[in-house]
């Protein structure tokens, strides 16, 4: 790895740069086009520059509305994030011990990642339909449907985010030095103190990573929601329905707004992880000083 | 049993108690996740299988045991021979898409991972560049699909540029809402799933093996082909499993980028569900599941064959 850069380095670096351009180019195109002038269309060239399409979006008088689906997706994303973090960290701790069914749980999580989303989504829809029909049969039509954002929708999203959370926790605990815990125990820490003061600070950057996956994967989730979300729509579902019908930059303005939220969340979590990492390395270390 | 264990081996007994409570704690910790998977993954899969054997009419599904869902899925497959029925034609098309996307993402993903693992020298740069490739994965897939419209559309940037350069005389229609744009979008969205596992495998490779290969007189290509590829095998297989299963079940990308004109295994399920024909949709889902499992078996076996050689 030492020495002068070879030709293959420059070729590969060029390939990498081309890939990054391929990755971001189209997104930059629609971000730019969302500032299209009032008479501009869906394609280049720019016909002036304005906030026209954003104003329409926020005023709610365009063909596209942020509206309720925006808040629904945001709340669902936050709940999915919280549950993903808590359940993944707990399960990660469990997998450090031996327990019956550990292998089964692990392979179920992997299967949940791999089974096509439409199959899982259909299954959840069928489960809730059959539950509804049974309940209606037994108790009469006391309610319409049990399907909804925070029942079937939440479950559908968790089947997608939890496997990622678990895999990240596996990666963390595989590298975890368990002597830290032993030391804490030897010094008289209770299991809870050991977790709170020793284990959690070490795994914290990755816990933020799990949170990032939890929110963003839910915020953008589409395939699993399609059958299982119930009577209301999430933001990606609205957006997908619009792709076929909208013929002006309204949709780009909405796309830019949704991406902006994604980027803010990504930046927030990355900054948080970086901050924790830095603080740890700067903190005074009294190891070996007999304090 | 308790008293005997306690009387003969008190130390052993308390040790046993400890592991027992330890296991109980582990169960409590894994419980929430296990419950979610049981309620929202395993049970639903069971319902898909059960309902695939149910009967149906225009507006509801009827509990019974019939093969109607499967028979309807394959309607015309024998009568219309030798021309292909919808089912076979769709699966053929999906497998073709799948193979194309797999081959391209493998090539790109491997090259990117190779660059990051063996040519980027500091960990900081490696993390930064990996993040650069990961960030789009955390943004919306639908938006990343829509983003191709201003580039590939009839009046898009690509057509405009090519016409200005005089390469073409009229806009090319095959750029958008075509098989080409579906493959392009799938590669755009899912190369990430190929790159990450391969990079992970490559970072575990003992660098001395590569030095040894070089000292032994291997050139760069020989080192890649005979040392790095076999040692990244696990990552390649994991990445392939991700990409193959995603593309086989995809209906969103095929729908949006294919202008709802291209059929896929996922889309025929969606069409049946939109028509509220749940048992046929479920039967199709079971068939898709079998197809995906068969391909995964093939993939994992391909690895074992390599090991035998």
Write the layout of secondary structure elements.
The complex is a heterodimer of chains A (291) and B (309).
Chain A: H1 7-33, H2 52-59, H3 67-94, H4 102-114, H5 117-139, H6 149-174, H7 179-186, H8 191-219, H9 225-228, H10 235-243, H11 250-282
Helix pairs in contact in A: 2-11, 3-6, 3-8, 4-6, 5-6, 6-8, 7-8, 8-11
Chain B: H1 2-8, H2 10-51, E1 55-56, E2 61-62, H3 68-73, H4 86-118, H5 123-134, H6 141-146, H7 149-152, H8 157-164, H9 179-203, H10 207-215, H11 220-231, H12 233-249, H13 252-257, H14 265-274, H15 278-308
Helix pairs in contact in B: 1-2, 2-15, 4-9, 4-12, 9-12, 10-11, 12-15, 14-15
| Radius of gyration of chain A using CA atoms only | 24 Å
Mean pLDDT of chain B: 86
Please give the largest β-sheet of chain B: 2 strands, antiparallel
Structural class of chain A: mainly alpha
Compressed to H and E, one letter per element, the order of chain B equals HHEEHHHHHHHHHHHHH
**Count of alpha/pi helices of chain B:** 15
Spans of chain B of 5+ residues with little confidence (pLDDT < 50)? Answer: 1-7
Instruction: Count every beta strand of chain B, where a strand is a DSSP E run of 2 or more residues.
Output: 2
Shape designation of chain B:
globular
**Total count of strands of chain A:** 0
Mean of all residue-level pLDDT scores of chain A: 86
Spans of at least 5 consecutive residues with low confidence of chain A: none
Number of DSSP helical runs of chain A: 11
How would you describe the shape of chain A? globular
What percent of the residues of chain A sit in helical stretches (DSSP H or I)? over 70%
User: What distance lies between the first and last C-alpha atoms of chain A, to the nearest angstrom?
Assistant: 42 Å
Strand content of chain B: under 5%
Q: Please state the structural category of chain B.
A: mainly alpha
Largest interface: chains, residues each: A-B, 90 and 87 residues
């Amino acid at each position: 790895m030492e020495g002068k850069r070879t030709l293959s380095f420059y070729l590969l670096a060029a390939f990498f740069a081309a890939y990054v351009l391929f990755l971001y180019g189209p997104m930059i195109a629609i971000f730019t086009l969302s500032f299209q002038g009032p008479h501009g269309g869906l394609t280049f060239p720019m016909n002036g520059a304005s906030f026209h399409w954003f104003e329409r979006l926020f005023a709610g008088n365009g063909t596209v509305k942020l509206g309720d689906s925006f808040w629904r997706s945001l709340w669902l994303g936050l709940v999915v994030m919280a549950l993903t973090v808590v359940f993944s960290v707990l399960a990660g701790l469990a997998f450090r011990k031996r327990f019956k069914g550990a292998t089964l749980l692990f392979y179920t999580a992997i299967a949940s990642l791999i089974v096509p989303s439409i199959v899982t989504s259909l299954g959840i829809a069928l489960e809730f339909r059959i539950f509804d029909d049974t309940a209606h049969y037994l108790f009469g039509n006391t309610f319409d449907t049990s399907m909804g954002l925070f029942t079937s929708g939440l479950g559908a999203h968790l089947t997608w985010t939890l496997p990622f959370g678990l895999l990240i926790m596996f990666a963390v605990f595989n590298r975890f030095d368990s002597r830290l815990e032993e030391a804490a125990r030897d010094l008289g820490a209770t299991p809870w103190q050991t977790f709170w003061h020793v284990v959690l600070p070490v795994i914290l950057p990755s816990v933020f990573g799990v949170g990032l996956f939890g929110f963003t994967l839910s915020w953008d989730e589409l395939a699993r929601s399609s059958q299982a979300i119930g009577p209301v729509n999430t933001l990606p579902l609205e957006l997908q329905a619009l792709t076929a019908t909208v013929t002006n930059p309204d949709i780009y303005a909405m796309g830019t707004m949704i991406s902006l939220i994604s980027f803010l969340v990504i930046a927030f979590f990355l900054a948080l992880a970086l901050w924790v990492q830095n603080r740890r390395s700067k903190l005074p270390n009294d190891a070996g000083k007999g304090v | 049993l308790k008293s005997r264990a306690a009387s003969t081996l008190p130390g052993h007994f308390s040790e046993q108690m400890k592991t027992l409570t330890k296991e109980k704690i582990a169960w409590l910790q894994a419980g929430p996740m296990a419950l979610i998977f049981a309620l929202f993954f395993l049970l639903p899969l069971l319902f898909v299988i059960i309902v695939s054997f149910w009967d149906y009419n225009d507006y509801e599904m009827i509990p019974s045991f019939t093969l109607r869902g499967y028979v309807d899925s394959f309607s015309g497959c024998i009568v219309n021979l030798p021309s292909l029925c919808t089912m076979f034609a769709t699966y053929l098309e999906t497998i073709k898409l799948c193979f194309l996307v797999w081959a391209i993402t493998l090539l790109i993903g491997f090259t990117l991972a190779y660059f990051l693992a063996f040519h980027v020298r500091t960990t900081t740069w490696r993390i930064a560049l990996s993040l650069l490739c990961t960030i789009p994965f955390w943004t919306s897939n639908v938006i990343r699909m829509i983003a191709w419209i201003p580039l590939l559309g009839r009046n898009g940037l690509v057509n405009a540029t090519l016409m200005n350069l005089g390469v073409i005389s009229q806009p090319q229609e095959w750029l958008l809402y075509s098989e080409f744009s579906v493959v392009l979008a799938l590669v755009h969205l899912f190369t990430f799933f190929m790159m990450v596992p391969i990079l992970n495998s490559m970072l575990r490779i003992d660098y001395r093996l590569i030095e040894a290969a070089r000292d032994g007189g291997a050139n760069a290509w020989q080192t890649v082909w005979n040392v790095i590829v076999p040692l990244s095998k696990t990552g390649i297989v994991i990445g392939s499993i991700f990409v193959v299963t995603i593309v086989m079940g995809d209906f969103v990308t095929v729908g949006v980028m294919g202008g709802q004109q291209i059929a896929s295994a996922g889309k025929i399920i969606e069409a049946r569900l939109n028509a509220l024909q749940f048992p046929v949709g479920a039967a199709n889902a079971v068939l898709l599941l079998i197809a995906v499992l068969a391909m995964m078996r093939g993939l994992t076996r391909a690895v074992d064959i390599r090991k035998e050689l």
